[in-house]
Amino acid sequence: MMIYKVSYVIPNHAHPGAIVNQTTMPYVGEKVRLGDVWCEIIETKDLLPPHGEFAYIHVTCRVVPAPEPNIVSP
Predict the structure, then answer these.
(1) What does DSSP say about strands 54-63 and 31-34: parallel, antiparallel, or unpaired?
(2) Residue 7 CB-half CA count within 13 A
(3) Distance CA 27, CA 4 (A)
(4) pLDDT tens-digit map of 12-30
(5) Residue 4 in contact with residue 24, Cβ under 8 Å?
(6) Alpha carbon separation from 46 to 5, 10, 11, 18, 52 (Å, rounded)
(7) Would you state the pLDDT for residue 11?
(8) What CA–CA distance (Å, rounded) separates 12 from 16?
């Protein structure tokens, strides 16, 4: 199984970003939660070629409003 070591960066924002191991490749338009901040991915780049079961990815994000919670009717 491929492990993606993802570096999340939020330019011009106080949030420090994050480095996360995950099993799915991040994609442009995906919304992710980094701590208490919701972000939308606007760019992805390979940092290095994949090595064995590891891929190294750089992601640039922008802050977005938190998604609406799913409301389930009884």
Answers:
(1) unpaired
(2) 9
(3) 12
(4) 999 999 999 999 999 999 9
(5) yes
(6) 10, 17, 18, 16, 15
(7) 96
(8) 10
Tokens 């570096």 — which residue?
7
Q: Are 59 and 8 in contact (CB under 8 A)?
A: yes
Tokens of 12: 């011009």
Q: What does the pLDDT read at residue 61?
A: 97
The token duo for 62 is 């922008």
Q: Which amino acid is at 34?
A: L
Q: Are strands 37-51 and 31-34 parallel, antiparallel or unpaired?
A: antiparallel
Q: Per-residue pLDDT tens for 52-73?
A: 999 999 999 999 998 877 666 5
Task: In whole angstroms, give the CA distance from residue 48 to residue 34.
Answer: 23
End-to-end CA distance of the chain: 39
Residue type, 59: V
